[in-house]
Amino acid sequence: MSESPPQNNQITVMLQQARKGDSAAGRRVFEVLVTDLVAAARNLMTSERTAHTLQPTALINEACVRLMQQDVVQSAENRRYLFAAANRAMQQVLVDHARSRNAAKRGGEVQRLPMDVLLDNFETENGVEFSKLHTALEALEADSPRQREVVEHRYFGGFSVEETAQLMGLGTATVKRDWKLARAKLYATLTQVRE
């Protein structure tokens, strides 16, 4: 029988315990983080065939390596920071891979890697290159860091409006409004990029 996931405040308590040197709490936090990354990767691959298990695994592994290098469990103050760091790590992995893939295409030698299928699926489903979306997200953050965070939790993390509101300490009406405004701003930015 598997153990149920910790509640929101339990994650923050475990983070505090990990920062005080409790390695068991640190491992448990990282397990929760990996579970979140798996869900987020699956969210990005919703229309992909189930046989493509390697792509989300490669993404998750690389994101975990980056999170360990950042020592996110020791530096995270709370659950909100932890999940934001996880979403950003996953996005950065995809951006870096998209950029290297595009550079390889220009160079003539293209070797398909596991994350290529994930990126191809994302770009086909959304009609935008991931690197251009990342640029639009950076512009959104300059305008409204909170709206970018809402996008990250809703879109990349796969959280519902209610889960995002609880994670960020906001009302659901605020999250709905930020989500709507952020999507409009991203659309406007991406439309300008295409022209």
UniProtKB/TrEMBL annotation:
This is RNA polymerase sigma factor. GO terms for biological process: DNA-templated transcription initiation. Keywords: Sigma factor, Transcription, Transcription regulation. GO terms for molecular function: sigma factor activity. The keyword Transcription regulation applies. InterPro entries: HTH_Sigma70_ECF-like, RNA_pol_sigma-70-like, RNA_pol_sigma-70_dom, RNA_pol_sigma70_ECF-like, RNA_pol_sigma_r3/r4-like, WH-like_DNA-bd_sf. Residues 9-190 form the RNA polymerase sigma-70 ECF-like HTH domain. CDD domains: Sigma70_r4.
